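Posting for a labmate who doesn't have an account.
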Amino acid sequence: MSSDNIEHLKGLVSQLQAKIERLEKQAQQTASDAKHKVGEAVDQAKDAVKGTIADATGAAQKTLTPAQHLRLVLMGPPGAGKGTQAPKIKETYNVCHLATGDMLREEVKKGSELGKEAKKIMDNGGLVSDEIVIGMIGSQLENNPECQLGFILDGFPRNVTQAEKLDEMLAKRKQPLEHAVQLLVNDNLLVSRITGRLIHPASGRSYHKEFAPPKKPMTDDVTGEPLIQRSDDTAETLWKRLETYHKQTDPVADYYKKKGIWTGVDAAQSPKTVWASLSKIFEESKKQ
């Protein structure tokens, strides 16, 4: 092969290499552009999703009614029907049911700082302080997803000092109480109610041998688990408990009356009628 042909081939190879380099650069640029465009598209999609979520959240907040932001203290003597009505309120309005006894047991079981402190006091036979109980309520409102739309407080406050401390904590959270509902029943009727009461320990659901019996005797309708009768559900014990209840709760009811959020409900009626009265209270608050 002549030297001219060799030089010609070298020239072709050089041109080919230059073309390859150009194509590689173009490919890299195209890939870079594509990556950039994909990145932009992903960012836009993220922004769109965030916007949709924000719009949905905002719309939800606008459409949520006062009843769906239910913040309620439920008061009533033993046997008034709190164990029947509280679960219905919880289910209907998607709020959490905070019973002080249950909260204490839960915190002790979890081994939280509040639980350890409470256990130490209870083991020594003492009464858990208001600060600990209010701390537990605050912890539930902060961490329990069920409390996002509100809460039912059951068994607290028991005196005016506790009510004032509770209001102070809720004011800091900008979650003031909306309702203080008291179930009202004649004491003599309560005695007959209580002595026939049956309890499902795990859920707190209550039945009555005569007025609201379970579908199957001594058996919870939902879980099929056995029901119990509390050892303190005797007439003698109940009269003492009612005396303590009135002494403690009447001033609390007066406190909430002065704040304009108290409502009394005749709980001597059937559970269905009581529920209708409660629903009416919450529905009317929507219109205000």
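Reply:
Got it, the structure tokens are right above this. Confidence is low (pLDDT under 50) at residues 52-67.
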